[in-house]
């Protein structure tokens, strides 16, 4: 007898299918509603539409009152301009590809998980 | 009697040719499997770099994971074709050649090629005897396993 002991041959195939199904159930991810909202917002507000490709969205913190004031007077913002009365605003770094170059955009979410503003894209430098 | 032996030898030669033919086919299948493995692995890398994801019913399906799954299915197909298709034909021709060699062993003791190959084919690995049936595990299982692990990892993190 060789290395492999005698057992029903179908057990290997069944085991592999089981691992495949369980692995898929374990590993598959739902779309993050924030990522979906970000993508929609960017597509609606950037003119580089054809070559836009979302990559990731990372939480970078809650903005403080100083940043809030800076942002409300910053001409690069799109969307709702006045952020003063928007409650807690969370800042996310959105990595994306525009015209085949990597950029990051700051995306601002209110406490209802809606995008209220975004910064101008800044090219990622290596 | 001499005519009979000549005919038996011709049949033996033809059987060896058939063995060679099936061996060639199996080697070709393994070559294709390795070439495709490399090609699909490169494709998975490219798709991962490009970060192309498909959203299906609110679930993220990375295209690199799909490529890995396809790679796994292709490797399984090669495994099936090799082990359960041509290897069985090869085994048939080997058994036939051994039968002929046993028939003529008294008149032609030098014609024991298939029997000798059969004896030398098996090897000992950590005390286990590994026959040609088991050698498939060492060739195809890692290829299939790599794609399976890649599929789950890419589905989770890509």
Q: Report the major sheet of chain B.
A: 2 strands, antiparallel
Question: What is the string of helix and strand elements of chain B?
Answer: HEEHHEEH
Please count the beta strands of chain B (DSSP E, at least 2 residues each): 4
- Strand line-up across the major sheet of chain B: 1-2
Distance separating the two termini of chain A: 58 Å
As residue ranges, the low-confidence spans of chain A are none
Q: How many beta strands in the DSSP annotation of chain A? A: 7
Largest sheet of chain A: 6 strands, antiparallel
Number of helices of chain B: 4
The dominant shape of chain A is elongated
Tell me what the structure shows.
The complex is a heterodimer of chains A (126) and B (158). By secondary structure, chain A is an alpha+beta fold. Helices cover 31% and strands 31% of the residues of chain A. In chain A, a hairpin with a 2-residue loop joins strand 4 (90-98) and strand 5. The longest helix of chain A has 18 residues, at 10-27. The radius of gyration of chain A is 23 Å and the shape is elongated. The N and C termini of chain A lie far apart (58 Å). Chain B is mostly helical and 158 residues long. The longest helix of chain B has 49 residues, at 2-50. The mean pLDDT of chain B is 90.
């Amino acid at each position: 007898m060789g290395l492999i002991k005698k057992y029903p041959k179908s057990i290997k195939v069944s085991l592999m299918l089981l691992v495949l199904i369980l692995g898929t159930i374990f590993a598959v991810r739902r779309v993050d509603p924030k990522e979906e909202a970000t993508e929609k917002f960017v597509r609606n507000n950037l003119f580089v539409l054809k070559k836009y490709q979302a990559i990731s969205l990372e939480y970078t913190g809650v903005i403080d009152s100083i940043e809030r004031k800076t942002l409300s007077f910053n001409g690069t913002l799109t969307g709702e301009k006045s952020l003063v009365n928007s409650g807690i605003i969370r800042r996310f770094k959105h990595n994306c590809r525009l015209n085949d170059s990597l950029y990051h955009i700051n995306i601002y979410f209110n406490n209802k998980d809606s995008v209220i503003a975004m910064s101008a894209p800044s090219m990622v430098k290596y | 009697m001499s005519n009979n032996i000549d005919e038996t030898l011709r049949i033996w030669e033809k059987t060896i040719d058939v063995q060679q033919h099936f061996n060639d086919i199996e080697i070709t299948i393994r070559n294709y499997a390795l070439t495709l493995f490399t090609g699909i692995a490169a494709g998975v890398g490219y798709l991962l770099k490009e970060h192309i994801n498909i959203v299906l019913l609110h679930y993220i399906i990375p295209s690199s994971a799909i490529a890995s799954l396809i790679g796994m299915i292709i490797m399984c197909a090669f495994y099936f074709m090799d082990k359960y298709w041509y290897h069985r034909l090869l085994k048939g021709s080997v058994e036939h050649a051994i039968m002929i060699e046993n028939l003529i062993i008294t008149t032609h003791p030098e014609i024991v090629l298939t029997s000798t190959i059969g004896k030398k084919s098996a090897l000992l690995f950590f005390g286990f005897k590994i026959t040609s049936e088991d050698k498939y595990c060492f060739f195809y299982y890692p290829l299939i396993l790599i794609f399976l692990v890649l599929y789950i990892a890419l589905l989770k993190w890509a």
